[in-house]
Design goal:
Elements lengths: L5 E4 L8 H5 L1 H4 L1 H8 L18 H10 L4 H21 L15 E4 L17 H4 L1 H28 L4 H22 L13
Helix pairs in contact: 7-8
Length: 197
């Protein structure tokens, strides 16, 4: 089993709803408000994390060498919700993002319990080590936006999502999920790959 988050997104390629794709950003406002409510009470220093529980994980890894299961469950559910909203906004699916888990977007986490321990000191340096990954991720994000613009135009005019664009967009989302798993959620000590594959 991989020591990284595995991302599976079921993309709707054919028979797309042109009308909802055209006004997707406006239709997503309610679920975006719901998603942003998790970060609304965070202070400025931690606000960029966006709703994930990080400090309890860092403290429990440093002092107890344990990843709290309830924090893991919350962070996993929050990242899956974020991915469902992202898939909807990026026109990968016409299904309005549910606030409950569904089969369109699934994330598989590495096994944390069962003998594999996380290094207790790594949370102190992971953010620093992840700087090159974040910088490359920004380039990948620009690539994702360009692909999404082309795909959005195709969906609105022709009613289908190009398969090659969908594959690349999902790879970029998976890259960011692996990066979050390493640097923000701290669920693995394995350094993520720089590639999209």
């Amino acid at each position: 089993m991989s020591n990284q988050i595995i991302t599976e997104i079921s993309v709707d390629l054919d028979n797309r709803d042109k009308n909802t794709a055209l006004f997707r950003i406006f239709l997503a406002v309610p679920v975006l408000i719901f998603l942003s409510s998790f970060a609304a009470f965070a202070d400025d220093a931690m606000g960029w994390i966006g709703g994930f529980l990080v400090l309890p994980v860092v403290l429990s890894l440093l002092f107890r060498n344990v990843y709290p299961s309830y924090v893991l469950a919350f962070n996993k559910a929050f990242l899956e919700l974020d991915n469902r909203v992202t898939a909807y906004l990026l026109v990968l699916t016409d299904d309005y993002p549910s606030i409950e888990a569904n089969q369109k977007v699934r994330l598989t986490y590495p096994e944390i319990d069962g003998g594999r321990k996380l290094s207790p000191w790594m949370p102190l340096v992971k953010w620093f080590l992840a700087i090159p990954l974040f910088l490359l991720g920004l380039i990948y994000a620009i690539y994702l936006l360009a692909l999404t613009l082309i795909a959005w135009f195709t969906v609105v005019t022709k009613g289908y999502y190009p398969a090659d664009k969908a594959e690349e967009v999902v790879k970029v989302i998976a890259y960011w999920n692996r990066l979050y798993g390493y640097a923000v959620l701290l669920i693995t000590d394995e350094y993520p790959s720089f590639s999209l594959s």
